[in-house]
Every structure is written in C-alpha cells, then in structure tokens.
Amino acid sequence: MNGNSTRRAAVEPGGTGVVAHVGLHALGQFADRLGLGDALSSRIPWAGNGFPLHDRGKVLVQMALVLAGGGESCLDIEHLRTGPDLFGSVPSDTTVTRAFHEITPETRTALLEAISEVREQVWGHLAAAQGTDPIVLDIDATLVEIHSENKELAAPTYKGTYGFHPMFCFADLFGDTLSGLLRPGNAGANTVADHVSVLDAGIAQLPEAIRAGHRAGDDPSLAGRAVVVRADSAGCTEGFLTACRERNVGFSVTARSNPQVTAAIFDAIGVEEVWLPALSQSGEEKEEGTCVAELTSLIDDDKLPERTRLIVRREPLHPGAQRSLFPSLDYRYWGFYTDQEGDPRDLDVTMRAHAHVEQHIERLKDSGLTRFPFTSFEANANRMMVVALAADLVRWFQLTCMDGAWQEARPKALRWGIFHAPGRLVRGARKRLVRIIDGWPTTEVLVEAYRRMALLT
Q1: Does the structure show a pLDDT above 90 at 38?
Q2: Which residue range forms the structural domain that includes residue 337?
C-alpha cells in the first residue's frame, strides 16, 4: 500500500506559457461586456494632474474580481498582477488603498447610480425580471467582529463582541445586494431611520420601470409592478411601516410579543376551525400540527397602518426551537404583520422565505465582508460597496452565463471549479488563445460561459 497523497516532483521558477484564474478572466470579461468599469469611471472625479495611471473604475472592478476569487486584502491583487496576458495592467495594493480613500460619500452615491444602470441592463437579459409578480425586498442586519480598536466607529455589539453592525437590502428575485449601510457596532437593531435609508437606497437600485411609483413622494399611480419588503421584528416599528405605506410598498414583518398578540393567540387556542394546515415551500401540506391562522379580528392596534393583518403560525415544539410569541408546552407560536391580500397559508409561505436573507449575507461574508482593513470609516464603507458589487457581479454572471446547478453554486464551489481554472496561453496571428488544462472538470461550463457572454448586446 502507498499512503502518499502526492508524487515526487522538483519545483523551480521560470515557467512560461501558463495562466491561472481563467474563470476570473471570464468574470472580468463579463463586467467589460456590461460596461461596468466605464460606468464607474464616469462617476469618479479626478483631482490630480493629467490622467491617473490606473483608471479608477478599472481598479474597483479588478478589486471586485479579487474578492470574488477569495481575496480579502488589497495586497491580494498581486495575484492578478502575475497574469498581464489576461488582466492587462493591474494596480498595486497601494493604488487600490488610495482609491478606496479617495471616494467621498458624494462619489459613492454617484457610483451606486452607475451600478443601478448596469443592474437594469442585466435584469433586462433575465426572463424572471419581466414577469408581473411583486418584487420582494429583504432587509436584515448582521454583526461583523473586528479585532482592533483602531477602526473608526467600531464599537461593542449587543452580543458582547466588538465591530460593526451593517444593514442590507436584498432583492429576493436574484439575490442582488441592492443596498448596504455600514453602521457602528452599537447601532440599534430596530432603528427606523436606518431601515428607511436602506429601503430607499434599495428601491433606487431597481430598474426604472419597477421603482417608479415607489419612491418617497412618487405618485402611486406610476407604479407598474408591486414592491413588498420583508423584515424581522427589528422592522416591526410604527415609523418603518408608515414609511412603507408612504412609498406604496407592501410589507411583511415579524410580529413582536405584546399583550394584544398574546391575548389573540390565547383566544384562538382550542378553536381548531381557525387553524389551517400550513404549507411547505413546494405547496404541500406540512406535518400534522403545523398550522396557520389569521387573528386580525382579535387585535386592535391603532399604531398599525390600515388593512394590516396578523397571521400566526404554530408548530409542534422541537429541540432548539427559538423563542415563541406565546408560552406553551405543546406548540411554538410565530407571527407576522402584513398588508398583503391572499390566503394566510400562502402569505406564511412567502414570509418564511425571508430566511433566504441568511444565504445572501453568507455570500457577502464569503466575499470579503468579514474584513474591514482601513482605519477610516468612509474607506471601509467604500470597500463594503465593492464587496456587494463583487457578490452581485458573480450572481449576474451565474444567472446570465451559466445554467443548472452552477446558477446557485456557492462562492467556494465557484472558486474551486470555475474561477481558478488553469490554462495554457498560445499566441498566434496577433491573438491570445487560452486552452484550459486537459481534464479540468468544468471546461465545458467555462467555454459555454464565454459563448453566452459573446451574445450579450
């Protein structure tokens, strides 16, 4: 038997004709086809003499490629500098750092406008964006631990850690990060102003045909497609729900435990005709005991907007169940407020899909969100914007240029199978040709991605 995991080989420098990160080149080509770098460049003012050696829009896109490939620090851009045949002129880590510090809050707003234009272009290529179903936005916050007290506005968190508490708004349709707000670690979970700010920024990222009629001050009659926002109990505030109604945005938010809700559940216990079998995400009835009931008639809260409904779900207790709205030895109770019409069981299915937000946040954390390398708060906010851009660029690439399981593949799978594919560089007839190494398991997937990319207009 032979327990060795490798074969003996001598290693020495001086290799030529070999390139790495072929999949990242595909991702970069996709960004170029969308005009992403040019769109960003047009929003970044230049105060120096002449022109910068490295176009700042290109710098941001190349840093997004680094983050998509698993890099975390600005120094990781050196891995692209070793492949000039694929990535051209790549900036140094010093230039990347400088670029993050040059962007002002006003410039960041302009850059987000550029990203929204590119997003509209991408959504135009995706059939699912052309439907009539409501566009669902998911808002949630997450804690990011920082192991340094030198970061501006980093602070203790409610869980006893130290760092930041950013809040995000995602489009459930494709998993896009529509907006993100970097906040100190001690920022409140249910701060109305932050929820409204993230919602407004998220709506601004939607294609014009969708966001019309949903911005603050818009005429509701301009709305051509419904928009609904989902949030956990942090969004269950009078101010946020009022802001949603003012923007012609529907809502579904997790209900907090209070005397009225507790009394409503207590009154419904034993009245089995009000409890309907809950449905799974596939539309099938759940196991016996898992039920849904509408208890709107049992509450009277003048702080809730008109036409607000209370829907409660009960399920048999199981080990590890989270805190219930109502103390019970038999069931766990969970409820939400919504102003949407429809069967309570269908609305329950839609609301429980808010759990997708955890996958979206995990994707961000796997794309650099766990690192805030700068002392400056604004520089870290700029980097977080590029982290979101990197995650969105990957999602757009998956949905536009790939199919099957690769459309939902997680970042780690994409890096192992796609982004870091090696190849051999062949020059001839004034062209560069990259041949993916023989036996690479995703060669056909990559070739097909390039083919689809060439069809984009």
Answers
A1: yes
A2: 133-362
